[in-house]
Amino acid sequence: MNLENTQVQMRKGILEYCILHIISRGEVYASDMLEELTSAKIMVVEGTLYPLLTRLRKAGLVEYKWVESTSGPPRKYYTITDDGKAFLESLSTTWGELMNSTNQIISEKQS
Amino acid sequence: MNLENTQVQMRKGILEYCILHIISRGEVYASDMLEELTSAKIMVVEGTLYPLLTRLRKAGLVEYKWVESTSGPPRKYYTITDDGKAFLESLSTTWGELMNSTNQIISEKQS
DNA sequence: CTTAGTACTTGGCCATACATAGTACTTGTT
DNA sequence: AACAAGTACTATGTATGGCCAAGTACTAAG
């Protein structure tokens, strides 16, 4: 029951929402996403991101195409699908409700 | 990859935060908590709440005392400990940061 | 005594984040 | 050509927490 562990738990599911949102804004590959997440202070490692992307693809929420790179191996550039857009909408609602509910609880004064 | 599942994942850790916060406001027992969570639209079942309370107790973040009831079996009334208060402070920070980070991501426009 | 309601307990399941190690391709240096 | 370094992606195993479902124990009402 240490803090670090709870922090990990707290962002479960939210990562999926963030990634899907980033992809919805245009073609990106994994390192782009890592950069954006890091700049938003959401620390993520490769071992977390890649399996997540695989899950999203298997679920038909995103697609990718190989694009050759001038500095290294080819990259998978991801785009969101129509199903992905619909799912993202639902996630937005879910996240909004969760924020509302939580903030309602924690803003309650001593009874 | 259905919505329900993601909703479950999204609230991991957050429930712990909410419960601890509710207990910090004064003596309560499980049904009080369930009622408050439900009124905030956070649906929780017994099988989730009781193990969570046990974890919090084992971690020394909350204590309880038995109080007899006039309408049924005795109840465990929970109170927060000093350690619990400190932990709650940290969770507040964590939750605030998570909200900021997520909202930063999802408010980003198309690039 | 039986039934219903309340309060709490327990065991097993599942999905996700993570650590870690490994594969494959390209570029630059010797 | 051989090697090291950097980049991009893959695979395996672990731990945690929320949840379902079944079960125990106590009280009050019929």
Please describe the structure with a list of short key phrases separated by commas or semicolons.
60% helix; mainly alpha; homodimer; 111 residues; DNA-binding
The class by helix and strand makeup of chain A works out as mainly alpha
CATH architecture classification of chain A: Orthogonal Bundle
Q: Approximately what portion of the residues of chain A adopt beta-strand conformation?
A: 5-15%
**Overall form of chain A:** globular
Largest interface chains and counts:
A-B, 47 and 47 residues
Distance between the termini of chain A: 27 Å
CATH class of chain A: Mainly Alpha
Helix proportion of chain A = 55-70%
How many E-type strands of chain A?
Answer: 2
Mean pLDDT of chain A: 93
Unreliable stretches of chain A (pLDDT < 50, length at least 5) are none
Record the strand order, biggest sheet of chain A: 1-2
- The domain tally of chain A reads 1
Strand count, sense and closure of the main sheet of chain A?
2 strands, antiparallel
In brief:
Two copies of one chain form a homodimer. Chain A has helices at residues 3-10, 14-24, 30-39, 46-58, 82-106, and strands at residues 62-67, 75-80. The first copy, chain A, is mainly alpha-helical.
Description:
The structure is a homodimer of 111-residue chains. With 111 residues, chain A is mainly alpha-helical. Chain A has one domain (3-106): Arc Repressor Mutant, subunit A. Chain A has five helices and two strands. The first copy, chain A, has helices at 3-10, 14-24, 30-39, 46-58, 82-106, and strands spanning 62-67, 75-80. Chain A has a two-stranded antiparallel ribbon. In chain A, strand 1 (62-67) and strand 2 form a beta hairpin. The longest helix of chain A has 25 residues, at 82-106. Chains A and B meet through helix 1, helix 2, helix 4 and helix 5 of A and helix 1, helix 2, helix 4 and helix 5 of B. The structure holds a DNA duplex (30 and 30 nucleotides).
